[in-house]
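Narrative of activities, Objective 1.

The group set out to show that a structural description can be obtained from nothing but a protein's sequence at a throughput compatible with the screening campaign. Below is one input-output pair from the validation batch, recorded exactly as produced.
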Amino acid sequence: MNSSALLIWGMLFGAIGFGYFLYGKKQKAVVPLIIGITLCVVPYFIANVYALVMVGVILMAIPYFVRI
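Output recorded for this entry:
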């Protein structure tokens, strides 16, 4: 179950990251662009499901709080 959960969460965060990336590129906003790239790459480096979900949720919340 651990590997299937990692796969599903990784795909979810990758899709959300792709959305952030497209939004940041279209609006020329740096924070969503960087967060999008990070959300697409992070699942490759985190092997724990709980850590992946925690990092993914924190990364998704950053553009809401940081406005540059």
